[in-house]
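Suppose a colleague, Dr. K., hands you the sequence of a protein chain of 410 amino acids and asks what its three-dimensional shape might be. Before reaching for any lab equipment, you can write down a predicted structure in token form. Begin with the sequence itself:
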Amino acid sequence: MSSKANWADRLFGILLQVKRICEQSGITMFLYDDTALEAYGSQTLAPNVSVCIDIKDSEKFIAAVEENQSSNLRVEHLLNNPRLSLKGPGAIVYDPDTTDFNMFDFFYYNNNCLGVRVYYIAHMPDNGLSRRYVNAMLRGFNKKNERYFNLKDSKASKLTIPLEAMERTKGPEQVALYIHDLVLSKMSGDTERVRVARNTFDAELFNETANVQIEGQTFLIPKNAGEYFTRIYGAGWEYVSKDEYKEGRYRFRSALISWEDYKKAVPFDEQDYFSALREHYSAEREFKMYNRRQHKYFKLLKRTDDRIQLARQLEPRKQELISMKEAGDYEGLKVALEPYLKAIYENEKDRLGLCFDREIFELACLIIEQDYGVRYAERIRRLVYQEQKMDLQLKDYKGQNIDWKGNAIT
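The predicted structure, expressed as tokens, is then:
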């Protein structure tokens, strides 16, 4: 099995080579997703390395990698892999002498090797009709590729029918070329909004840059890091769990064996594999449908537990928290309310409000307004229904009112 040292070092080496190619070609490269977050927070390399560049530089970037004589890097992109899903990166720069195998999505790629995923900063057309057309074509292209692998028993739709007809007459390469040219022509101009994968940003966010470090090497992220990460992860991005790589039966990485050699060493029947994978997706879909109500019930139970635990922790400090607010000590207030803020953000992702005391709740909303704006704070307020704004009442097994220490209230 692979040790982390060999693949992590090689992965970082690939990132440095991609950075050097971009600098030599005059292309601005930003760290993206978990790569940016871990560099910003802990100055370490995330296990899945992602960067982003402006889509108008995509052809120049691909040519620069292919023409680079100082490395053995290769690049996989839409024009040499027409089955590449555009839900993910626009290109992958990889080392062909390595392996990065994931059982559940390896078939989308021609080369499952250690590499850097390159996402495109695509400019969303200001014209509504043009924007809807491009989005429809991209959704249809991804759906067509899913149908090609027949993974989720998806049916043909008005989005896939014209592209599948083009593929039957002209081949998948021509369909990929059509999508490639469409995206470049419609999403390369200067617009107010841009999209990277499934996340949208104000275009001006990428106008100013800031430096972050990984292993002593300098990389770029947008200067307004808070806005950048909020758009990717949502409010509470500071509490996002660190991404980890876990090797097992479904995942394998190594810098010591190439993908081509790995395929020879571990042969498998492709037809049996896809049949088993379709059964997996079918069972997974039934499981999610069956457990939807149970999941909602357990989320409500967790929210109730959060209310009780936070009230037990913060109610005794209520006057202290109010005094902090009156004294203008917002940093101290934020530190004191950090467990509450974290729970608010976690519950908001499930569309659940979290309030156990109206005054403490408003103090938390004041911090949220300062960090994420009035609109987000109002959204948090709307999630809290009237019953939650009433004071919590604790009772013992006899039904008698008690305080947080278990003492009877007369």
